[in-house]
Amino acid sequence: MSPWAARRLTVLVRELGRILGSCTVSTQPLISMTGVTKQYGGAAGPSVALRDVSLEITRGEFVAIIGKSGSGKTTLINLLTGIDSPSAGIIRVGSTDVHALGHEDLSSWRGRSVGIVFQFFQLLPTLTVAENMMLPMDFCRTYPARERRARALGLLAQMGIADEADKLPTALSGGQQQRAAIARALANDPPLIVADEPTGNLDSRTAEEVMEFFAHLVNSGKTVVMVTHERDLERYCARSIALSDGALGRPDATQSRSRAKA
Ligand code: ADP
Ligand code: MG
């Protein structure tokens, strides 16, 4: 081979490596947890809530976290969203090492990157529904101030509760409050929605509607990670990750299934 051809080959190989490298980046999981352990201190001594958990969740997945009460589901969600920090292990969401962020960086990262939905809604009782929704936008300044109310109203309309915008949360039914909380989770248009027993306080029809909306979000490109102990709602999720006593369940308890149609 001539020196010119050898040099050309080297350039081509380097270019190929660069292209393959960027392919690798694009197929990386959205979420990866490696060797994550959480130990709480307490009067009765330390207790391990999560032990050596490693998992990956791909962009656009709808994943259920299942397990009995006390199995570590909320702990896992709190670590994933940076609400709490692990005792050991690595938690990466996108390109962010969540476990390594300081308090302020965490708040700002969480506000932009994750929408969180809780079982008991956690709307601020002294603010109207629309004001509750504008808070994350005010905090992160993701949208200009003059656009925030219109965006809030648009999301409330999407959730079918536009008429409730100027009411206090207590004037709404449980189902309406959870819709408002989901709209709030979407306020900054985060790629990831994390929900801890979002249907635990809803009647079964409203629960199905919430699940259908999550499935719709997944179809539009969001990633949804949802804790539930209602096994019949798992059918909406493409995959279930089982927790038992703080550890990932047996391999046969982590199931894949084709996504239910919304
Ligand atoms: P789940 O959401 O599956 O019901 P949790 O993650 O809330 O489970 O709790 C897992 C374990 O960790 C339980 O034994 C619980 O008592 C314990 N735990 C959770 N939070 C704390 C805390 N802040 N301090 C001490 N122990 C805790
Ligand atoms: Mg819990």
| Total number of strands | 11
SSE order, as H and E? HEEEHEEHEHHHEHEEEE
Cofactors, ions, other ligands: adenosine-5'-diphosphate, magnesium ion
Rg estimate, integer Å:
21 Å
Stretches with pLDDT under 50, minimum 5 residues:
16-26
pLDDT average, as an integer? 88
The end-to-end span amounts to 59 Å
Number of helical segments with 4 or more residues: 7
What general form does the structure show?
globular
What percent of the residues sit in helical stretches (DSSP H or I)?
Answer: 25-40%
> Major sheet: size, sense and barrel closure?
7 strands, mixed
Strand share of the residues? 15-25%
By secondary-structure content and strand pairing, the structural class works out as alpha/beta
Characterise this structure.
The chain is of the alpha/beta class and 262 residues long. It has 7 helices and 11 strands. The chain is 37% helix and 22% strand. The strands form 2 sheets. Strands 3, 6, 7, 8, 9, 10 and 11 form a 7-stranded mixed beta sheet that branches. Strands 2-1-4-5 form a 4-stranded antiparallel beta sheet, covered by helices on one side.
List keywords for this structure.
single chain, 262 residues, globular, alpha/beta, binds magnesium ion, 11 strands, 7-stranded mixed sheet, binds adenosine-5'-diphosphate
Architecture blueprint of SSEs:
Elements lengths: L2 H24 L4 E10 L6 E11 L4 E5 L6 H8 L7 E6 L2 E2 L5 H11 E4 L11 H12 L4 H14 L15 H12 L6 E5 L7 H16 L3 E5 L11 E6 L2 E2 L6 E2 L6
Parallel strand pairs: 3-8, 3-9, 6-7, 7-8
Antiparallel strand pairs: 1-2, 1-4, 4-5, 9-10, 9-11
Helix pairs in contact: 4-5, 4-6, 5-6
The structure holds adenosine-5'-diphosphate and magnesium ion.
